[in-house]
Amino acid sequence: MVPNYGEGEENAFRRLRKEINESLGSEVLSLDSDQRQILLDSLRFDQIDARQMTIRNAHAKTCKWLLTKPEYIDWLDTTKLGEHHGLLWIKGKPGTGKSTLMKFSLANARKTMKDRTVISFFFNARGAAMEKSTIGTYQSLLLQLLERLPALQCVFDSLGLSSLSIRPDHQWSIESLKSLLEQAIQSLGQSSVICFIDALDECEEEQVRDMVQFFERVGELAALAGIRFQTCFSSRHYPHITIKKGLSLVLEGQEGHSQDITDYLESELEIGKSKIAQQIRRELQEKASGIFMWVVLVVGILNKEHDRGRIHALRRRLQEIPGDLHTLFRNILTRDSHNRDELALCIQWVLFAKQPLSPEQLYFAVLSGVEPEAVSKWDPDEVTKETIELFILGSSKGLAEITKSKNQTVQFIHESVRDFLLKDNGLGDIWPNLRSNLRGQSHERLKHCCLTYMSMDVFTPLGIREELPKAQSQQAAKLRQLANDMFPFLEYAVQSVLYHADLAEESDVAQGDFISGFPLPSWIKLANLFERHQVRRYTEKISLLYVFGERNLPSLIRAHPSAASCLEVGKERYGPPLFAALATQSEQALQAFVDALFKDQLPGSSLNKTQPCYYGDRGDRNLGLSFTFSNQRGVLSYLAELGNKAIAIVKLLLDTGKVDVDAKDNSGRTPLSWAARNGHEAIVMLLRAYRPYLYAFYGVRSI
Questions:
Q1: What range(s) does the Nephrocystin 3-like N-terminal domain occupy (predicted)?
Q2: Is domain 48-140+188-250 annotated with CATH 3.40.50?
Q3: Are 89 and 101 in contact (CB under 8 A)?
């Protein structure tokens, strides 16, 4: 916030608050500072800056050319905002060094532009969901903006939240975040904001297109209002998104970019300054075709050759190295046959894990697959963090790295590695046995790794004999921490073994034997160990089908031999498995249950010609996570209350002839009265239509 002359910072912020409140309207209920802080903290998420921290800093002599480019200078010139609306888009081929250039630009802006607020987000396709989505982008940018300009936090007032709905785990929607960010930018006044967003191509295209449109609109409105707001994007050339106004800069062919590679080779290729060494540098640069990632990898290869005293062979080695980045990856992975099984499993884990694994998790995950007899409690004195780092380096042949964030994870060194393995089918080419069903076979193998790790005796080392302490007690929290310290891969294995089995089944790797032989009793005890809420713990009598419904595992539901029993009520909080899917809004699992009921219906059913679908009016009531099934009410009673979204299930249930449409619950209500009370006309008509048949079935006189 820049104060007016003689105004002072405190008065300037007071004036800004007043302007924002006026722009939001007179009916807005102001939140207090504690409530705003809760909302602010809820914007944070793990790995919020992981990608930026992992990108290597620019070499001392590189990237500076950007600061003198006319496009960059014009972008920073606030007198030209009307021409370009504050948008600059830097594009380049994969591996050209776009992210390094963006990190340099970000650091330079923070260092030299003290009068401006600088915010940023770096997409990361190898990271967790929030790192590769626009909802993560908006949360991060909004958090940075409101922390640096606290007066803008009053935009939270526009949400119209009650004090009871303000929680640390507030769930943000894309539209609410966009609205808040737009309001904050429109309320900048004399403040100036510069925003850097890297690697747009590492997010889903539809999300990115929507985000670009948002920044186009915000940039236009800001320029019209004389607000200084500038955004710099970077991405590959594809997908191409047209913007109405803005500046662009392509890395290929830039003299400064070429000079960066020259400077890097002079500094990092440690083969001396002889004529042959200089010739190798020139040949290497020509072969690189501007791909910085290729240069970095080849420099490492040639330095190793030089360190072995093989300077005479350097030119021949350079000639052998493929000039294409993907072919180079293939060359790195196939150059020797050392630990090929370990290499394949390491790559499969980095590619197909449910979420990025920590170094310790990955170490034991790979060990569970290649040396299961060596799996035991982790002793950090024997297997040090340095040992684990070396293991990951060797297992991945240098194509995976450990992030430098607070909560470290393992990812590929560059998104082009993933492109090679999946889009270019590199994994299938290197391991032909995976070619026919890479996804299915990979998830099947990861499932077995989880099962192996789970089969260890963890309860004796943890001192657990009979019952677990209450989930929300301090004792339980300490036990969970001890379990994670002793067995780093255990929580992931327990929570994800069914996830991998479901995706394997979806990819035509049959899971019938897995379902029939699954160690449910021990899994329940392990799942309950890691559960932080007592009400969410499972009973000993839980059915596997209930777990499938609650965890949205549609393929396993379809493979379950008793899927049609999904309306049988057990002792779990949500009642029958189908209700577990409803309560957790597990839509794919719910449809799988409906399909199973459809297949199990009576041969003469009127539904025999129509495949049902549970989807209905989104305005209907949902059960919700807080729902608890009461045995004082029947299944049909709850379904009738839900409304049109449950109509297909109600039809299927009525069609069996096994339910009483007039059964009363403990409050004296029938399914018909529940449907009528909630205005579900279609359900009412359906129940009435089935009454004659049902009365005849039960031998009861119609009323």
A1: 62-236
A2: yes
A3: no
